[in-house]
Specification:
The complex is a heterodimer of chains A (267) and B (382). Chain A is 36% helix and 24% strand. Chain A has ten helices and ten strands. In chain A, helix 4 (111-122) crosses helix 5 (127-140) and helix 5 crosses helix 6. Chain B has twelve helices and five strands. In chain B, helix 6 (176-198) runs antiparallel to helix 7 (207-245) and helix 7 runs antiparallel to helix 12. Classes of the chains: A alpha/beta (267), B alpha/beta (382). At the A-B interface, helix 1, helix 5 and helix 7 of A face strand 4, helix 2, helix 3 and helix 12 of B.
Chain lengths: 267, 382
C-alpha cells in the first residue's frame, strides 16, 4: 500500500477532499446551476462535464473561492469555504491550484517569474530554491529551459502547460483544470492527460478537470458529475465509463456516446 | 486530518569506506524553511573520498516539490564530483517525479538565458532598424488614414455612425468639467502673474489683455489638447490595443472591413470636431479665471475687465486658436490610434501603447505649437 511518505500526501485518504452541499449559483439574476451535491474524493481525478454553456466553469469559480454561491456550502477538507472570514478563506483558497483555459499567465513576467510569484508570497525559500522549483515544474510540463521566455513568446499550448506549472507552484492539495485540452493538438492533449495522471499518482494530488472532451474523460476520470444546461442541475454522478453504458438517463448516455443513445436504450 | 509538520532534517553518515548515506527526515514542504543545497555540499566536503551515496528516508513524514528539487540538485552535485547516487532509499513517488522531469526533452536550451548581452554596434543597428520600421509604420498609418478620409468624403467609408456620436460625446461633452476646471485655474495663474508685474506701473487693466490674448491664441487650445491627450488619446490607445490583443482587429480585416475606417476614422473625426469646441469653452473659462483675479485682487470692475478683453481680442486671434485646436485634436487622435494599432498582443503591450500615445501626442503638440506660431507670424495672421 502506498504510504503518505511515498506520495507526499498528508490527508487521511478516505475523507472527501471537496464536498458540495446543495449549491445554487448564478450571475446577477441569472441562475446557472442549482441543488448541486457531490463529493470529490482525495486522490481522484474528478471530471465536471456537460454541454457548452451548462456552467462547468462557474461551478469551478465557486469551488475555488471566486464566486459566492446563492445557497449551499462548499467544504474543503471539512471546512466551509464561504462561511470563513476573508483571511481564513484566502488561506483555504491557497490549497487549490487552478489552470485557466488560456493559461492566464502574467504577461509582464517571464515564465520563471510567473511560477516563482506564489512561492515569493507564501514561502521563506531562498531565491535559488525558488528558481530550482520553477525549473523543475517547467521540466515536469515539458518546458525545461524556457524560464526566461515571456508568455507572448510561446504558443497557446505552451502557455497552458506553464499554467499547469504555475498552478502546481505551491504543491496544492487540489488542482483544477479548466478545459485543459481545448485548442491543443491531439499529441499535446494526450500528454497533458498523462501528466494529470502521473502527478496524481506521484503526489497524490486531487485533480478536478472541467472538460467535454470525451477521449480525455474516458482516459483520466475516476469519478464525474454531469451538469445539464436545460434543467440547470446535475443529472448524474459516477465513473463516466459506467455512466456511458448503464446510466438510466438517456441524455447522459447520449452525451457520453457522442450523440447516440447508447446501450441502455432510452429512458 | 493533516499530519503535524516537523522541521526538515538532513544528515550524512559513513557506514563503509567511500560509502555514505544521506538521512532525510521530518516534513519537506515548500512552506517550511528547507535546508539549502549548500548544506549538502558542506556535508559532502567532510567526506571527500565518498564514491557512493545512499538515501535513508525512514524518518520522512511528508514531502512535496521542495524535496524533489533538493534531491535533483544533490544528484547534480554528485555527478559533478563523480559520486554515484543510489535512489532506492527514496520514496517511490519521488523517484517517479524525478524520472518524469528528466524524461522530457529540454527544448528551450539556448533560449534567452543563454544569449549574451548584445554589443553596442549590434544595439545601434537594431535600434536603427526599429526606427526605420517605426517610420514606415507611421507613414503607412497616415497613408491608410488619408485613403480612409477620402472614402469618408466620397461617402464610402465603412463605419458605424452611432460610434461616431458616442465617441464625440465621450471625448467632447464628458470632458467639459475637467477642461473647464484646468482652464479656469490656468486663467487665474496668468492673471496673478500679470497683476504682480503690471501693478508696479499702475497698468493692471492690461491683465485683461494679457490673459485674453494668451488664452485665445494658444493657452486654451494647448490646455484642451493636453487634457485630451491624457484622457482621450490614452483611452483610444487602450481600446484599440485591447482589440489587438483579443484579435478583434484581425476579425475586422478577415471580414474585409478596414480598421482604419471602422476604428480610426470615427475617432479622428470626433476629436477634430470636438477639440475646437472645447477650446472655445476653455477660452471662456480662462478669461473668467483672469477676471476673477482682476476683480478680486486687482480691484477692477467686471465690466471694465470684459470691455478691455473685448478690445484686445480680434477675430484673427480667435481663428489662430481654432486652427491650433483642430491640429492638436488631430494629433491626439492620430497618436492614440497609431499606438493602439501598433500594440502587441499582451496586457503589458497595452500599457506601453497607452503611455506611448500620451508621450507622442504631447511631444507633437508642442512641436506643432511652435511651428504654428511661426506660420501665423509669417502669414500675418497674428
Amino acid at each position: 500500500m502506498t504510504t503518505a511518505a511515498d506520495t507526499g500526501a498528508s490527508i487521511a485518504p478516505d475523507s472527501p477532499q471537496i464536498r458540495l452541499e446543495g449549491i445554487t449559483l448564478g450571475y446577477g439574476d441569472t441562475l446557472v446551476q442549482k441543488d448541486l451535491s457531490f463529493d470529490i474524493r482525495r486522490g481522484d481525478v474528478f471530471v465536471i462535464m456537460g454541454g457548452s454553456g451548462c456552467g462547468k466553469s462557474t461551478v469551478m469559480r465557486c469551488v475555488t473561492g471566486l464566486l459566492e454561491p446563492w445557497a449551499g456550502r462548499v467544504l474543503l477538507q471539512g471546512e466551509s469555504l464561504w462561511e470563513q472570514p476573508p483571511a481564513a478563506r484566502s488561506m483555504l483558497m491557497r490549497r487549490n491550484g487552478v489552470m485557466y483555459q488560456s493559461g492566464a499567465l502574467w504577461s509582464s513576467m517571464t515564465l520563471e517569474e510567473n511560477i516563482c510569484l506564489p512561492l515569493e508570497q507564501y514561502t521563506d525559500l531562498a531565491p535559488e530554491q525558488m528558481r530550482a522549483i520553477a525549473e523543475y515544474k517547467l521540466a515536469l510540463v515539458g518546458l525545461a529551459g524556457y524560464g526566461d521566455y515571456y508568455p507572448s513568446e510561446i504558443s497557446g499550448g505552451m502557455r497552458k502547460r506553464v499554467g499547469v506549472a504555475r498552478a502546481m507552484a505551491l504543491d496544492p492539495d487540489t488542482l483544477f483544470f479548466d478545459e485543459p485540452s481545448a485548442g491543443l493538438d491531439p499529441i499535446s492533449a494526450r500528454r497533458l492527460d498523462e501528466l494529470i495522471l502521473e502527478l496524481r499518482d506521484s503526489l497524490g494530488t486531487t485533480m478536478v478537470v472541467i472538460t467535454h472532451e470525451l477521449d480525455s474523460i474516458f482516459t483520466i476520470a475516476d469519478d464525474s458529475v454531469f451538469l445539464d444546461a436545460e434543467t440547470k442541475t446535475m443529472l448524474a454522478t459516477g465513473n463516466p465509463r459506467e455512466l456511458r453504458e448503464h446510466s438510466p438517463i438517456a441524455q447522459v448516455r447520449t452525451f457520453l456516446n457522442r450523440g447516440e443513445a447508447g446501450a441502455y436504450g432510452s429512458a | 486530518m493533516t499530519v503535524t509538520a516537523t522541521p526538515p532534517t538532513l544528515a550524512l553518515a559513513r557506514h563503509e569506506p567511500r560509502r555514505a548515506t544521506v538521512s532525510i527526515g521530518g516534513t519537506w514542504r515548500v512552506t517550511q524553511r528547507l535546508p539549502r543545497l549548500a548544506r549538502a555540499r558542506e556535508l559532502l566536503d567532510q567526506s571527500p573520498d565518498t564514491t557512493q551515496l545512499d538515501f535513508d528516508t525512514t524518518a520522512l513524514t511528508d514531502w512535496d516539490s521542495g524535496l524533489v528539487t533538493f534531491i535533483a540538485g544533490l544528484e547534480q552535485v554528485c555527478r559533478e564530483r563523480g559520486i554515484r547516487c543510489d535512489p532506492q532509499g527514496l520514496p517511490a513517488g519521488l523517484r517517479k517525479l524525478l524520472g518524469l522531469a528528466r524524461s522530457v526533452p529540454q527544448t528551450g536550451r539556448g533560449g534567452h538565458a543563454m544569449q549574451a548581452a548584445p554589443s553596442f554596434i549590434r544595439r545601434l543597428g537594431s535600434d536603427s532598424l526599429d526606427l526605420i520600421k517605426s517610420t514606415g509604420e507611421i507613414m503607412e498609418f497616415f497613408g491608410e488614414g488619408t485613403l480612409a478620409f477620402r472614402n469618408f468624403v466620397l461617402g464610402r467609408a465603412r463605419f458605424r455612425r452611432s460610434d461616431l456620436w458616442l465617441i464625440m460625446q465621450e471625448s467632447g461633452a464628458d470632458a467639459l468639467p475637467i477642461v473647464g476646471l484646468v482652464s479656469f485655474l490656468v486663467g487665474i495663474i496668468l492673471g496673478y502673474i500679470g497683476d504682480q508685474q503690471l501693478k508696479d506701473f499702475g497698468a493692471q487693466i492690461y491683465v485683461a489683455d494679457l490673459v485674453g490674448l494668451a488664452t485665445v491664441i494658444q493657452m486654451g487650445a494647448l490646455v484642451t489638447a493636453i487634457v485630451l491627450s491624457g484622457r482621450t488619446g490614452a483611452a483610444f490607445a487602450a481600446q484599440i490595443g485591447t482589440m489587438q490583443v483579443n484579435e478583434e482587429i484581425d476579425a475586422l480585416r478577415t471580414l474585409g472591413i478596414s480598421p482604419m475606417e471602422f476604428l480610426v476614422l470615427p475617432r479622428m473625426l470626433a476629436l477634430i470636431a470636438m477639440t475646437p469646441l472645447l477650446a472655445i469653452y476653455a477660452d471662456l473659462l480662462g478669461i473668467l479665471g483672469g477676471a476673477f483675479v482682476g476683480t478680486v485682487v486687482g480691484s477692477l470692475t467686471l465690466a471694465a475687465y470684459l470691455t478691455e478683453t473685448q478690445i484686445a481680442i480680434g477675430w484673427n486671434h480667435i481663428i489662430q486658436g481654432l486652427i491650433a485646436a483642430t491640429v492638436y485634436g488631430a494629433i491626439v487622435a492620430a497618436s492614440g490610434c497609431l499606438r493602439g494599432m501598433q500594440c502587441g498582443r499582451s496586457a503589458a503591450a497595452v500599457g506601453q501603447a497607452t503611455t506611448s500615445a500620451v508621450v507622442t501626442s504631447i511631444v507633437f503638440i508642442v512641436i506643432a505649437a511652435a511651428v504654428l506660431t511661426i506660420l501665423f507670424d509669417a502669414t500675418g495672421l497674428s
